[in-house]
Each structure stands twice: as C-alpha cells, then as structure tokens.
Amino acid sequence: MKKNITKILSIALSGVMLSGLLAACAPETEEASAESFVSIDVNPSVSLVLDENEKVLSVIAENEDAQVMIYNENIEGLSVEEATKKIADLAVELGYLNENNRGVSVTAQGEIDASALEDSVKQSFEAAVSAEGKDFAVNVTAEGLFSSVREVEMLNAELNLDLTVGEYELIVQAQAADGSLSVEAAAEMDTDELLAVIYEHSEEYIPYATEAYLEAKNEAWNNYYQLKEQLLESYWMTPYLNLANLTKYNFGINGYSYSVYTGATIALEAGIWAAEKAAKIAEETEIPETAVNNIAVALELTADETAAFKASVTVDGKVTLDSLEAYLDTYFKNMTADERAAAQTVFGEVMTLAKASANEVYTAINAEYKDEISAMIEELEELLDDLPITLKDAANVYFAEFKATIESMRTAMDGKEPLPVAYAALETLEAAKAKALNAIKAELDEADRASVESKIAAAQESFAGFEKAMNDAIAQAEQEAKDLLASMKAARANSQN
Predict the structure, then answer these.
(1) Of the candidates 324, 325, 321, 326, which has an alpha carbon nearest to the alpha carbon of residue 362?
(2) 198-214: b or e for each residue (b if 16 or more CB lie within 10 Å)?
(3) What is the C-alpha end-to-end distance of the chain, expressed in Å?
(4) Rounded alpha-carbon distances, angstroms, from residue 28 to 53, 107, 202, 207, 435
C-alpha cells in the first residue's frame, strides 16, 4: 500500500503537473511502444518498461534507495540483459545486496519470457557478487515480495479479483500515471493498455523527484498559479457584472458557470492534496507491540533474535507497517526455494498477522481520505448555493453534470477507492471549465472579448516577479534534490571501500 500511496501522492504534490519517484526518458520515436514490464527488487526497487525488442524505454525508481542507486546512470536504451547487469553491478557496488540482504525478487508482465528473465537476473547478480570478491549466495524468486503478496491477497479478497503479483505491480504503475484509474478498472484492462498508460506519461517523470522536492514544487506552484489563475480568470466575469448585459448574455449563466467550475477545480485540487497528505500521515500509524510480538512468535525467533527483530523494525521510536514489511520482505526473500517451501506454514501465519496490522493502518488512511473528501464535497456544494437567486433555475440545467460529479464522489465515500473517483471528478470539472470558457468566448461580442483580453495581458506583466520567485524556488528544490541523491550515492560508495 505504501508504494501505491507514495506514487499517487507524487501526482497530487505537483498539482496538475505529473511527477513521482520515477526516472524515465522521453519516447525516442512515435513508433515506440511498450510491450513488457519488469520489476526487480533488492531494496532498491527498480522497474523497467521495455519495447518489442526488449530494450529499455523507461526506468522507474520505486523508492528513495532506487533513486539513489540509478541517479545519473544511463539505463534507457539498453537491452534488458544489459540493464539488469547494470542494476546488479550497482546493487553490489553500493552495498545494497549483501550477506544480510541477498535476495532478489523479479516479476514480469507482457511479451517477455519470464523464466528466461529470471535466469538472466540470477546470472547477472551472481556475476556482480563474484566480481566484487564477495562470498554469499544470491537467492532469486519470481513469487513476489511478502508485502506485495499480502497486498494482492487483500485486494483480491476485498474487490473479488484474481490478480497476480506481477499484474498488481503493473497496476500500481498505471495508477501512478493516471490517478483516476481505480484498481477495479485497471483489472479490466489488458497488459498492453496498462503499459500504454505508463509509457504515455513517461516523459513527465522526474529522476530527482524526492518527496522534499515534490513538497517544495507543489508549494511554489500553488503560491503562484492558484493566485494567478483566480485573478486572471476572474476577468472573464467582468462583462457579466454589467447589469445591462444580463439579457444580452443569457442572464450571465455562462459567466457564472465558468466561475463555479474554476472555483471547483481549485477546491478539488486542494482537497485531493489535503487528503493525500492526511493519508500519508495515517500511513505511519504505529503497529501495536502485541502484534509485533505475535509476529516474532510466528517466525519462531529466539529471545535474542526477537530483540534484534524489534530493533530492526523500530524507526523513529515506533513500528509501522512499512518498517515491519521491509523486514519481512528481506526475511522471506533471503530464503532459497527449498527454504521457502518448508516455511509455508510460518509464511501463512505471519501473513495473517500482517493482514490484521495492515487493516488497522488502511482503516486510518481511508478515514482520512473520507474526512477530507467529505469536506471537499461540502465546499463544492456551497459554490452552487452561492449563485444569485435569479440564476438558480437556469443553473439547474447547466450544472447537471456538476451535481452528478459531486454525487459520484459522495457514493465513492462508501466504496473501496474514493481517491480515483476524486481524480476522475477533477478531470470532469477541468473539461467543463474549458467548455464554459469556450462558451464565454463565443458569446461575448468583439468589444467585450477584446476588453477582457486586454486586462489579462496587462495583468500578466504584473506576475513576472511572482513567476520568477516560483521558478527560483523550484530550481533551488531541484538542485537540493540532486545534491542529496548525489551525496547519498557517494556516501554509499565510500562506505564500501
């Protein structure tokens, strides 16, 4: 779940500008198409989108460790064999793959031969270990990480689906590219369609998009664009404020329609952002000590091993689902195939306990989503309530879609996936806003239209200073993010010498 939330959060953090914990190249040619999807997890977690010749179209850094590992590395354009070799070399050189973390999870979707890929990945990592003079066995599994298996089993039970781990990982990437895509809708799409969604947005992905960068970019963007948008777009209302124009311009309904949809998109963007931020905080819900103890018992740990386990999963004074599953991912990933087969009973017991802990966290997350989206719905409804009484009857016709959109969000509050509905609603409102603006431009006579455009042009000049401040803030955040990733990579490299 953390992977999913973090990726969708990256969309909200940058407003309407999609970005995330991803690194990708722009499409090289119009003919290029995504045919396969490969996920390699050592922690770092890296995924590859491949073309029909199994060359890398885009590289996806799933977490900060992956961002560090592949920072300033050229992987796009390589064959999948060359790419996996490079990932293996980096994982060993930087100490990510070591005696205590010697397992590699690899899954594949699409046209690629999954069995051949698994063999190739195993050979690449074993060669990398040998080249560095290390002496430990590398265990490669295609069964998926413990956390992914847990998430898939819970989703399948909750939504009555039959997803595999590979399909789930592909859906997570598609949701990162399109926040309005629900798991249920994605499950109805075939692999080619999901890959197309991912690749379509690849040129919008940013390799240095740390969470701190996204926070800074969102703040700078909101401070500038929302202020500018509200001011400049308000000028389109000025002809309708002239009482003499009420009958001339259909009682101002197009102007008020545009005003309502503009306010709605701003409110909805802010609401989605608030919901994601609240969910991010809820994601850090502490796992009770009794649950941690029960998992230690299920793993059959000794007293000393239990103490080490608790120390490992405690981060900033508490155990979270993320820290707990990071341990469990490594624990089961490190096992050989025979060891995993022998540990199925233990695996099942731990899985049951992990699901119970995840349910508590997800309940907290969903509560935050619903609280924020409910507040957002109330704010949207107030926009219609504020319409002049003379326009309300006419507005019933013009705002039927608006009301239907609000109702779809209200219905989603009782469903499993309220956030994709909110993103879909944002797309609907943006389209309605554009339609209303076009109606205004078509309706206004030449003199009024020229007057509005003149005011907007004059106002644009006054925003030059604000725009520079925004660009400077984003440039500073970008440089800080790049410096951070470069320093973290250098520190890891130095620690291995």
Answers:
(1) 321
(2) bbebbebbbbbbbeebb
(3) 36
(4) 14, 26, 11, 17, 33
Residue whose token pair is 């119970």: 356
Taking 60 as the threshold, does the pLDDT of residue 298 lie above it? yes
- Continuous segment of H or E residues that includes residue 238: none
Query: What residue type is assigned to position 15 of the chain?
Result: G
Q: Which residues contact 175 (CB under 8 A, 6 or more apart)?
A: 4, 7, 8, 181, 183, 186, 420
Rounded Cα distance between 468 and 171, Å, is 38
Count of CA atoms in the C-beta half-sphere (13 A) of 407: 6
| CA-closest candidate to residue 326, choices 53, 77, 79, 100 | 100
- Encoded tokens for 348: 């099942």
Determine contact, residues 155/183, Cβ cutoff 8 Å: yes
Strand order in the sheet with 45-50: 23-24, 56-61, 45-50, 36-41, 103-110, 139-141
What are the pLDDT digits (tens) for 157-213? 999 999 999 999 999 999 988 989 999 999 999 999 999 999 988 877 788 888 899
Contacts of 490 (CB under 8 A, 6+ apart): none
- Positive or negative, the CA dihedral 121, 126, 127, 131 is positive
Coil, helix or strand at residue 122: helix
Q: CA dist 318 to 37, 42, 65, 331, 354, Å?
A: 35, 24, 21, 20, 16
CB 42, CB 104: distance < 8 Å: yes
pLDDT tens, residue by residue, 334-365: 999 899 899 999 999 999 999 999 888 888 88
Spatial CB neighbours of 426, under 8 Å, sequence gap ≥ 6: 180, 265, 268, 269, 272
Q: How far apart, in Å, are the Cα atoms of 39 and each of 201, 223, 264, 490?
A: 18, 37, 38, 25
- Predicted confidence band of residue 10 (pLDDT cuts 50, 70, 90): very low
Interatomic CA distance for residues 466 and 455, integer angstroms: 18
- Maximum CA extent, the chain: 86
